[in-house]
Specification:
Elements lengths: L13 H9 L30 H14 L3 H19 L1
Helix pairs in contact: 2-3
Length: about 90
């Protein structure tokens, strides 16, 4: 924990800070707070599906030959297959 930062709890460790806020309400200390500025890097949601190990090895090999990640190749292949299925439906 940085020593140059003040803390409403006057705690000396993250554990003590947690214990302080477990038993206190921020509403009582609101005037002592300062606005915070930060940015959030929102990534697309990722969902994982199990893939047969032999199929995974094939995807890895093709991806390496093409100079792309296995994840990118799998997404491209699935997108293409879904496009084909929509056309034939």
């Amino acid at each position: 924990m940085r020593k140059d930062k003040s803390s409403i709890s006057q705690a000396s460790s993250y554990k003590e800070i947690g214990e302080f806020w477990d038993s206190h309400s921020l509403s009582k200390f609101w005037k002592e707070t300062e606005p915070a500025r930060f940015s959030v890097d929102v990534q697309s949601e990722q969902i994982y599906y199990p893939i047969d190990s032999e199929l995974s090895a094939k995807i890895d090999g093709i991806a390496k030959r093409r100079g792309i990640s296995s994840e990118t190749l799998a997404n491209l292949l699935l997108q293409e297959k879904i496009r084909q299925m929509k056309k034939s439906a």
